[in-house]
Amino acid sequence: MNENIIIYLLAYLIASIPFGLLIGKFFAGVDITSQGSGSIGATNVLRVLKQTDPKKAKKLAILTVVCDILKGLIPLVVAKVAGVDANVLWSMAVLAVLGHCFSPFLKFEGGKGVATGVGVLAFFLPLEAVIAVIVWFVAGKAIKISSLASLLGLFTLVIASFLIHPNIAGINTHAPILIIAIIVVYKHIPNIKRLFEGKEAKVI
């Protein structure tokens, strides 16, 4: 089997691990895929678990975010140290987001891709990622709607990438960034519909 295919498969499968589900079951005895939005992301972990234990809910939501970031970031760091080509690294990044959003362990369902997307993009574009996280944090505090804050952070990162890095080193295209953005927006379509209807729930 071609070495790159093995790398791609590993990047996809590692990112497919549903940490939100595992953390909810192991630490709280709750299946978060059967409650709330059904997502495996930190927002749903927080929303579901805060009903029984608000303090634990926040800690487990943070743990979920960290795990979802690292499962995209760590394989890239290892591959970079191993001397893997930039084109392969960017392909791994896209596959990591796909793995989180469409996990074979969850019948190809999954999370929204925000944390994993931030993890992989921070590897390549740390400054843009920091700016996006700041926008996400401020927007989240101001409007208290997780999906809208996440989308604003995402759009900020995409725009910043064009302004700060007009030419992406090693690949000379923004295509992987745009693909990741499209995947994340696609997974947010139900949230976007609720936003337009004024029915999107706030995170308090």
Automatic annotation (TrEMBL):
<keyword id="KW-1208">Phospholipid metabolism</keyword>
<comment type="function">
    <text>Catalyzes the transfer of an acyl group from acyl-phosphate (acyl-PO(4)) to glycerol-3-phosphate (G3P) to form lysophosphatidic acid (LPA). This enzyme utilizes acyl-phosphate as fatty acyl donor, but not acyl-CoA or acyl-ACP.</text>
</comment>
<keyword id="KW-0808">Transferase</keyword>
<keyword id="KW-1003">Cell membrane</keyword>
<keyword id="KW-0594">Phospholipid biosynthesis</keyword>
<dbReference type="GO" id="GO:0005886">
    <property type="term" value="C:plasma membrane"/>
</dbReference>
<feature type="transmembrane region" description="Helical">
    <location>
        <begin position="171"/>
        <end position="189"/>
    </location>
</feature>
<feature type="transmembrane region" description="Helical">
    <location>
        <begin position="145"/>
        <end position="164"/>
    </location>
</feature>
<keyword id="KW-0444">Lipid biosynthesis</keyword>
<keyword id="KW-0472">Membrane</keyword>
<protein>
    <recommendedName>
        <fullName>Glycerol-3-phosphate acyltransferase</fullName>
        <ecNumber>2.3.1.275</ecNumber>
    </recommendedName>
</protein>
<dbReference type="GO" id="GO:0008654">
    <property type="term" value="P:phospholipid biosynthetic process"/>
</dbReference>
<feature type="transmembrane region" description="Helical">
    <location>
        <begin position="6"/>
        <end position="28"/>
    </location>
</feature>
<dbReference type="Pfam" id="PF02660">
    <property type="entry name" value="G3P_acyltransf"/>
</dbReference>
<feature type="transmembrane region" description="Helical">
    <location>
        <begin position="60"/>
        <end position="82"/>
    </location>
</feature>
<comment type="pathway">
    <text>Lipid metabolism; phospholipid metabolism.</text>
</comment>
<keyword id="KW-0443">Lipid metabolism</keyword>
<comment type="subunit">
    <text>Probably interacts with PlsX.</text>
</comment>
<comment type="similarity">
    <text>Belongs to the PlsY family.</text>
</comment>
<feature type="transmembrane region" description="Helical">
    <location>
        <begin position="88"/>
        <end position="106"/>
    </location>
</feature>
<feature type="transmembrane region" description="Helical">
    <location>
        <begin position="118"/>
        <end position="139"/>
    </location>
</feature>
<dbReference type="GO" id="GO:0043772">
    <property type="term" value="F:acyl-phosphate glycerol-3-phosphate acyltransferase activity"/>
</dbReference>
<keyword id="KW-0812">Transmembrane</keyword>
<keyword id="KW-1133">Transmembrane helix</keyword>
<keyword id="KW-0012">Acyltransferase</keyword>
<dbReference type="InterPro" id="IPR003811">
    <property type="entry name" value="G3P_acylTferase_PlsY"/>
</dbReference>
